[in-house]
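Researcher: Re-running this chain for the archive, since the previous output was lost when a drive failed. Same request as before.
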Amino acid sequence: MSVSYRWVIVAVGALMTCVALGAMFALAVFLEPMSTATGSSRAGISSAMTLNFIIMVSAHSAGAR
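Model: Regenerated structure tokens:
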């Protein structure tokens, strides 16, 4: 009997997406510790995350066409 793992793959992909988005949107929690640990300014870290969001939206928009 052949077992289909299609829905397992979909579920794992959804879980990975949730974890990745959760990590991205947790910037407010980790901004100060990241700034202290790396010596970077808060503005620099925030700028990098803003660029990340812009690229993510652009990639999503390009893929949705």
